[in-house]
Amino acid sequence: MDCNSCDYNKVKNKDGIGEIKVALAGQPNVGKSMLINALSGGNRVKVGNFSGVTVDKMEVCFEHHCHLFDLIDLPGTYSIDGFTKEEKVAKDFLVNEDYDVILNVVDSTNLQRNLLLTVELLELNKKMVLALNMADEARKDGIKIDTKQLQKILGIPVLQVSAKTGEGVDELLDKVHEVFDSQERSHSNIIYSDPVEEEIIKITKFLNERGFNYKDWTNREVAIALLLEQEKVYKDLHDNPIMVELYPQIVDSLEHIYTHHETKDIKEIKATEHAAIARGIALEVLNQKSQSKSLTLTQKIDSILLNKYLGIPIFLFLMWGLFWLTFEFGNVPMEYINSAIGAFGDFVGSHIANENLRSLIVDGIINGVGAVLLFLPNIIILYIGIALLETTGYMSRVAFLLDGFFHKFGLHGKSFIPLVTGFGCTVPAYMAARTLKSEKDRLITLFILGFMSCGARLPIYVLFAGAFFSEQVAGNILFLIYISGALLGLVMAKALRVFVFKGEDEPFVMEMPKYRLPTLRLLWHTVYSNAVSYLKKAGTFILVASMAVWFASNYPKNKHIQQQYSQKIAQVTDAKAKIKLEKELKAKELENSYLGQIGKFSEPFFAPLGFNWRLSVALESGLAAKEVVVSTLGVLYSVGEADENSKSLKDILHKELNIPIALSFIVFVMIYLPCFAASSVFTKEAGGFKYFVYLFIFTTVTAWVFSFAVYNIAKVIF
Amino acid sequence: MKLSDLSKNQEAVVLRVNASGELKQRLASFGLLKGANVKIIDCSLGKSTVEIMVDSTLLALRREEAEKIEVSAKD
Description:
A: 718 residues; alpha/beta; Rossmann fold; Helix Hairpins; 8% strand; disordered N terminus; B: 75 residues; SH3 type barrels; 5-stranded antiparallel β-sheet; 41% strand
């Protein structure tokens, strides 16, 4: 059909005319995302979450031959019968949601294992099409698949496609369309083991005799579902009188099956049956002379990358390269962005007459959101790196190499990457934790990420270490700060595992996918969608947060103080004295602002740690961004524009405070809540506001306890 | 013997998987159950993790998990 000949308005009509809803299912590493790209021709992808859970849901709508395709990408799972969040989401969708066709994508080079999922899907008795992806790679590997025979056994259309070369992609859409249009669903010719078949035949016969009907299912399909205990079917048939007679027969049949399989675990029986079916089908349709070339190549690469002695050094070198690129290379555009934001702020500021409005827009919004935009280059580079690690298959090797060490602390081998990223910036680190598939591992990693001191905290450490220690010692102190933060993180991870995320460890059973070169398109897609989601956050949540922080540090305005100082300033003629008075005014204003009031109010809380109200306010302003701590101290101690090298602030701190207070302050900064941007990303990644509350309590209590201990111990020593 | 006792490149057939619930299901979803062909490919420093081949799939397991799988070595 030619698209120009059809009525476009009709196609675009959303009330169902010609819309085909396709559920895309497949195991991980079968090239599903690449196939979506190829099918949709790079159309807009909607990324969201499956309702109620933090599992990414990808949906693409596009038009093909006058039909609207609505493709829903289910999470990649090895099975839909399992315990993981992804498996539950996929199963829930496939069993309960409304869709037209299942499109099952499999890796042609690993047919047998992929068929395990295919057989599970067939038992759902829905319209289905099977796409044998990576057909080009299979041919190169000398793998021949008899698609006609496979089609006959499975009873569904089977097509060889390649998302990479575009082979068969059009035909695949046509086929899905055809299956959608067909009146009847075809039925599979899969045969179970003899003992199970015997019982299937018995129950089918009974159902036939009673003239039983369920949906568009054959009675054989109903019998299989009943014997393999498909909950949905039991639920649907619950009130049907036929069940009264069926129950004893099913119990009897199951008893036979149990005896034969030597277990009463129906899930195990199912798995064994499916494995036998998959093996049988593979034997019949697969023609492969020797082990595939790509698998042999993978083993060769593994013998180097997983080498007992070379493996870890190679990995560390790659990591070092990635972080060097992220933070050195990323700093170049960072400077440009910074000056562009500054210039933009000045430009906007010069066009706003109202002083308050100008302050809100320039100091509050542009600076606040700008601080987040600043990290965009780092995040993009880091994401290219992580996407490369993931798509080439190296990430699983990393987990393999490091799991031994990390598992001792209750973490997963893959935790390493977010943890190291955390030393740069906590925001991308939280996002990097997505590579952890197990919920517990991911949450523990998220909770301890803040202990890896991010780059923005460095100025605070430099300032305090410089104020109280000689230059040589200060360097060691810095190193000590970073190391003890990391160690504390590991110890806390263990504590969380033992006390909070109790229960058995998630099993570490992970596929080591074959090494593959990613396509540029796929890389671009991953990086682009991550960058967009990061920017969206900057535009919404962080925008509001920056306004709130700006408000708290500028209001309420105290007219009395303002008048007093403007009079004084008007009286003095000396420029230096004028600047000094202006600084004093700034400090006074901050002291009386809501932020200052909170600082004073919370002083008793911080007093046991040795902090005065100025330090308290600085810590609280650091919740907006850690960079702000130093500048706030500068304002509060009236030294004007402060940075970590400003001599006068160092001197003042040295005079006003002492070593125990400084150490206690450093420890608090090291442990307490990450900045607003990071906290909001944390909340999103962890999956809800309650986790933010937990994080707040967890970090605050830990920070307080450790600071208190350090303060009191240091008081004795120094 | 246990899967963890196999030496590198030695081939074996799975006799029993002494696990239950989640672990058993997870192993089964990779085809690692009675009758599967397995082979040790590599192990990490200190043998804390092992890489095995199940039919034509490469899998990584922790040592504790490999200990739960009973195999019979092919000669």
